[in-house]
Amino acid sequence: MSSQFKKTVAAISVPVSALLLLVPGLLAQGPPPAGAGGRARPAGGRSTVGSQGPLPEHAKFSAEQVDAGSTLFLQNCAFCHGKEAEGGESGPDLTRSKVVSSDKNGEAIGSVIRSGRPEKGMPPFSLGDQQITNLVAFIHSRQDAFLSQSGNRRGVEESDLHTGDAAAGKRYFEGPGGCTKCHSATGDLAGVASKLTGLRLEMQMLYPREGKQKIVVKTPSGQSMSGTVEYQDEFTIAIRDAAGNYHSWPTKEVSFKIDNPLQAHVDALSKYTDDDIHNVLAYVQTLK
Asked: What's the half-sphere exposure (Cβ side, CA atoms, 13 Å) at 115?
């Protein structure tokens, strides 16, 4: 953990030890282990997350259902909710969703998938019952993984991090911070504080876990295609082009070059003062 981050949490008006215990879970990446469909529980069989209170038991799902749901989620949901369901382009973090927490057998999640939420920009999906069950299995597995990694501890409330000056943060954002070179309060950051809150919002600001990386792919036929990275592992590379179309190839069949847009965040860490961090966070918290 960097000395800069330690200085940051030291200035936050909540116990530092509690924040440091939360960070490993918040930074953890990757899919849950096989068989992670069951919720990790403390003694007594109940869990809590944030201020949501006791969570109900949900149906136990097989590893096969979780794996199948992972593929469906990547194809249908990841563009908005992120490939690990932790929030993305326009959709909220499902690992802390109250809808997911209250769901037992897919009745709440399934209803949202089938009907959509047009008022929030989510369309309905025409999927079969088994496909929806598999999606439910994967979404529950992601929330289970978050609960397990965070030790079922109380999350840091947004109010705990209201220690900066939003006006000063806006001046830094638009001026010496250079944030407007890549970001816009009315563009990519519009509504960000409604999707991410508390420590997750601060961590995304300081150590963004994923961004829309630009990529140029040269296909086996010699054609060049550009877009943003949607998925990447040792075997597969997938992009979404400017028209919103999804393309994927085996990595061994194509060549590609990725431009990491997060380098500016890395460079900024050596320039921030503690006041800068808290002030910019206070400003970002107003973007709801």
From this structure: 9
Q: Cβ(155)–Cβ(49) under 8 Å? A: yes
CA 69-72-75 angle, to 5 degrees, is: 150
The C-alpha atoms of residue 172 and residue 10 are separated, in whole angstroms, by 21
Using a cut of 0.85, tell me whether the model's pTM lies above it: no
Report the alpha-carbon distance of residue 124 to residue 136 in Å, rounded: 15
Residue 30's nearest CA partner among 86, 81, 85, 84 is 84
Locate tokens 């990529």: which residue?
A: 215
pLDDT in tens, 210-247: 557 789 999 989 999 999 888 888 899 999 998 889 99
Measure the CA–CA gap between 228 and 83, rounded to whole angstroms.
14
pLDDT digits (tens, 9 = 90+) for 175-193: 999 999 888 999 989 988 8
What's the Cα-to-Cα distance from 125 to each of 110, 111, 116, 152, 280, rounded to whole Å? Answer: 10, 10, 7, 32, 38
Domains and CATH numbers, the chain: 31-149 (1.10.760.10), 158-208+263-284 (no CATH), 214-259 (2.30.30.100)
Concatenated DSSP letters of 256-277:
EEEE-TTHHHHHHTTT--HHHH
